[in-house]
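Reopening this one. Same input as before:
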Amino acid sequence: MSEKNEEKIYTNSAKNLTLRISEDNLSAYLSFNDNTGMIDEKEITKLISTAGITNGFDEAKKLNEQNNIRKEINVPFLIAKGANPLADSEITYQFDKENCYNPEVSYDINNLDNFEKVHKHHVLAELKITDVSEPGLDIFGNQVSSGVTSSLNADDLLGDNVYYAEKENQILSLKPGYPFIDNQNKFHVKSDFFINENIIDKDLKIYGDITIDGVITNSRVEVIGNLRVKGNISDCKNKGVFVDGDANIEYAENARIVCNGILTINKNVRFSNLHSEKKIIGEKDSSIASCLLQCGYNITLANVGSPFSVLTEIEITASPYLKEMIRGTQDKLENARNNPDEKEEIIPLLSSELREMEEEYEKRIDELLQDELIDFQITVLEKVYPETRVRIFKHSKLINEELNNVVFSIKDNQLMINEVDRNEEEKSFDNE
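Same output, byte for byte:
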């Protein structure tokens, strides 16, 4: 049986050879300590004999040849390699591998919902060890009973967007998307989609990182992943765009966008509701007007409001994405209870989902109550127009004059405005 001890080191009398044996007795390395000339092979054999190594020479030679490793001065060189017991293994699949996305087929986006789909870190398969087929031997020829090695090499099974958890002996998805197995028995998750069409009057739920080279109009779009929209998002206020990851948009009008990650605004947003769990980042040409914008952390925008003094609200609040998800689940639950044709089992499932989200929301509120809130701020790089309401949790201010290049933050339990273009004068406003 192989036991872990301290590393064992042997040297010859001339001190120009060093032999190191690993703690688990499964490998031995030889170092040539100088380049004064040829070292007698008998010296090497004698040192190996003194150490008692009898097994693993062929295995070491094979590994060195496979990796094109040559002897070098002062570089440890593998001379013996033992092995753990080898066990037969089998793959237990955690998805229906007969109902998978086929990368060689072109699909309409409406058909993706018919295939197996997974979230990030979803278990795709387990590698289960069955009977031990070959005993293990260390470099001294002793039988090894621990550290059983699977006959399946997990690395040979890994394709795109998957990873191997060695401790659990599982293959998992690295991204949300559609799992499949290729003709080499490798696991993949198809997660990147480029949609070169307009999304009009549709109800879609897509897994993966999605780029839409078109518009979204009068549709409900749910993305389990990240979303990039190159065209306008319009007339989606009642239905909405829901993104479980980051969202990157150009334009939006009369839209509702709910994002669980970072929301990036490149151009103009009008008459819309935006909710982002993390940060909202407006690029240099960004502007929002006549909008409700809620964020769970920091907000940076170029321009806020309109010269025509329309009400625009920007707010840092607790878990806006989660709150929107709670509202949506409450609506689904109410509709299910009022619809006699709805399947009965959907009601307890929605009730359980709602309860979990409400508990998570209460947990986040408790965490916020323990913070000083000094790390939260709203930055407007250019103009804030009158009739803009700024709120950071319970502190708010209705702006009644045009401001330039300002930062809103909380200090001493008050809402502070740092007007950089006015000698960085700080003005404090409490809740109105």
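So the earlier flakiness isn't reproducible anymore. For the record, Residues 421-432 have pLDDT under 50 and may be disordered.
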